[in-house]
Design goal:
Layout lengths: L2 H11 L3 H17 L3 H8 L9 H10 L5 H10 L4 H16 L3 H8 L7 H13 L4 H10 L10 H9 L5 H13 L3 H9 L11 H7 L1 H6 L5 H17 L1 H11 L5 H17 L5 H8 L5 H14 L2 H9 L3 H4 L2 H13 L3 H11 L5 H9 L15 H8 L2 H11 L3 H11 L5 H13 L3 H8 L8 H4 L5 H10 L4 H12 L19 H10 L13 H18 L4 H10 L1 H6 L6 E2 H6 L4 H21 L6 H5 L1 E2 L3
């Protein structure tokens, strides 16, 4: 065989050079992760230094040898742009924070766009040592949490305690927060810092869990022990608010007035979560809400009861930051309107109507019709797209996605979006869409502030399948798309931690049930991960929920997420406005899910055309149980 012909065959059938480099990269990554460093070095030598993934090879080379701060700093100087440099900045900031080298700490801390809590506490400590008095408020704001905090926060709190800023009442307040959040480890730690005359008994929390009523009856003069008793009362109220109320009626006289009110607030809160109509009566015995969670559930209970004065007062019990959330601005405006305060209500509605979210749509519908149209889509130009294609971070992300390293791909994509203006973000979203990276297209288009493209925010892949099966089941195609967008962001291989699969995130047992209902072959459910089967099954199941749940899109959406039985239990004894039903869903995940699904449906209907319906009309009236 002629030599020239052999060369021709090699060129014809040899893998592309880029594919060879990518396979070498994956092999080098695996060798590094397994600690096979000699093999790693051999493979690394085959990857060109100027390759798009070259910084990762250099990073692993450096990390394989226990790098010094100088070496880490040199890497940052050589490759300043990307998640690897960010990771090293965090490592160095942590190192210098632990060493209390505050000048060096700040060099790296200032370059980290979103520092974690550990680094934020190091920064507070540095400022505290400089005599910055603003740390007192910021430190105390940080203190009042039910969550664990990193050890770097401890010196900040120790200094505040030494200055007399953080006292025993603050420790007791956080103890209550920890107990309210079920963080018993933190509660026990906080208890050790209380004085002997205040500290709860070592076995108090165990008794609160095993014999809650007995602990409540055994009244103690120790504040900590009484906090354990209130925790025990809360435990009873979670299971049976009526039982808790009857017990507290007999025992509350042994507790302080403030403790009595808190106890009634806890009983009322858990009654409200169960949609017990006695909740507002119990809230009235608590007086002003004793916690933010109590205030929110007092407001939700008042919404279900149609008591707008209590809705308004409940919102005023929230912190200023909480009141500024879209949800509470909307319901505050609704309460004002119901109380005939139209002018301040319309000011709130007008401001809220500028926001692209569930409450923005609802607020718009409360205002008089306006002549101006929705802002037109900004159309990405070829020049915009060319600029996005030149972004190293985005290109590196696309390459990582191509070779199956999705976590690295997403990290690089997030980095590539930093500092981009709206036009550049939309160009990046268009780039992601062209690469069929659907979730990144949505994520990126969602970041814009003034210029928008709703075709990119609300993309519609698999349109032929979705339209066919929506029509077959008599469903609104926009609603189907709204649900798919929320479930999977159109990632067809999506798989949840509990096993739900595909575009419409169908559980295996549900897939088997659907296959039987459709009269399919025994193993037909095994294909539920494919787009066609998944959409076919998902739309059938959604139609089943819709028909069995009073043909209410709100209840069907809630049932899709949390199960039809729960959706029925959340009905009231009287018909409820759909928005009120949604707002009083006890599970925050399901509550937000339903809002997003129906908001998505509104924007998809705007894209697809057809009959225009308001969001309020789409939410409808949820019938009585």
């Amino acid at each position: 065989m002629p030599y020239r012909f052999l060369i021709y065959l090699f060129l014809l059938f040899a893998p592309p050079a880029s594919a060879s480099v990518e396979s070498d990269f994956l092999a080098a990554r695996e060798a590094y992760q397994k600690g096979r460093f000699e093999h790693f070095y051999k493979l690394a030598a085959r990857i060109p230094a100027d390759h798009l993934l070259g910084p990762y090879i250099q990073y692993w080379r450096m990390k394989s040898g226990s790098p010094t701060p100088a070496e880490m700093s040199a890497f940052i100087a050589r490759f300043p742009n990307g998640p690897l440099a960010d990771r090293l900045r965090g490592d160095l900031a942590r190192l210098y924070g632990h060493n209390q080298d505050w000048a060096a700490f700040r060099t790296y801390f200032r370059a980290i766009p979103k520092p974690d809590q550990e680094l934020l506490c190091f920064e507070l400590r540095a400022r505290q040592l400089e005599g910055d008095r603003a740390v007192e408020k910021q430190g105390m704001d940080l203190w009042h949490t039910q969550s664990d905090l990193p050890s770097s926060c401890a010196p900040v709190f120790d200094a505040l305690a030494a200055q007399g800023v953080l006292g025993q009442e603050d420790r007791l307040a956080r103890l209550r927060l920890a107990l309210d959040g079920g963080n018993l480890r933190l509660a026990r730690e906080l208890n050790t810092k209380l004085g002997d005359e205040v500290r709860m008994d070592a076995d108090a929390l165990g008794k609160a869990l095993k014999s809650p009523a007995a602990l409540i009856v055994q009244v103690s003069s120790k504040r900590g022990q009484r906090e354990a008793a209130l925790f025990a009362l809360t435990g009873i109220a979670k299971q049976d608010p009526d039982k808790a109320a009857r017990l507290w009626e007999t025992q509350q006289g042994n507790y302080s007035e403030a403790e009595q009110r808190y106890g009634w607030g806890q009983i009322a809160m858990h009654a409200a979560r169960r949609h017990d109509t006695r909740a507002l009566d119990w809230f009235s015995r608590a007086g002003q809400a004793q916690s933010e969670m109590q205030a929110m559930w007092k407001t939700r209970a008042a919404l279900r009861a149609g008591d707008w004065a209590v809705v308004y007062r409940g919102i005023l019990d929230l912190s200023p930051a909480r009141q500024n959330e879209a949800v509470w601005r909307y319901w505050k405006a609704r309460a004002l309107k119901s109380l005939n305060a139209d002018y301040p209500a319309n000011i709130l509605f007008a401001r809220l109507s500028q926001e692209i979210n569930y409450y923005g749509l609802l607020a718009t519908e409360e205002l008089p019709p306006r002549l101006e149209e929705r802002p037109k889509n900004y159309l990405v130009t070829p020049e915009d797209l060319k600029q996005a294609e030149a972004n190293d971070g985005l290109q590196r992300a696309l390459l990582f996605r191509k070779i199956g390293l999705n976590a690295d791909a997403e990290a690089e994509w997030r980095w590539g979006l930093r500092g981009l203006d709206d036009r550049q973000l939309l160009a990046a979203a268009e780039l992601a869409l062209r690469e069929k990276w659907h979730d990144r297209a949505i994520y990126t288009a969602d970041q814009t502030r003034e210029l928008h493209n709703f075709d990119l925010r609300y993309i519609s892949p698999y349109r032929d399948l979705a339209a066919t099966y929506a029509q077959e089941n008599g469903l609104d195609e926009a609603w189907v798309y709204g649900l798919i967008r929320q479930e999977s962001r159109f990632v067809d291989y999506a798989r949840s931690g509990v096993g739900a699969r595909g575009l419409m995130q169908i559980m295996p047992a549900t897939a088997q049930w659907i296959a039987r209902q459709l009269g399919l072959k025994k193993n037909a459910h095994a294909a539920v991960g494919t787009p066609e089967t998944n959409i076919r099954f998902g739309t059938y199941y959604l139609k089943h929920l819709y028909d069995s749940l009073a043909q209410s899109p709100v209840m069907a959406s809630a049932g899709y997420n949390a199960g039809p039985g729960r959706a029925r239990r959340w009905q009231a004894q009287i018909p409820l406005e759909g928005a009120v039903y949604v707002e009083s869903i006890p599970f925050s995940e399901t509550r937000e899910y339903v809002k997003k699904v129906l908001t998505n449906a509104m924007f998809y209907r705007g894209r697809f055309g057809g009959e225009a319906r308001s969001l309020k009309d789409r939410l409808g009236i949820v019938p009585a149980r």
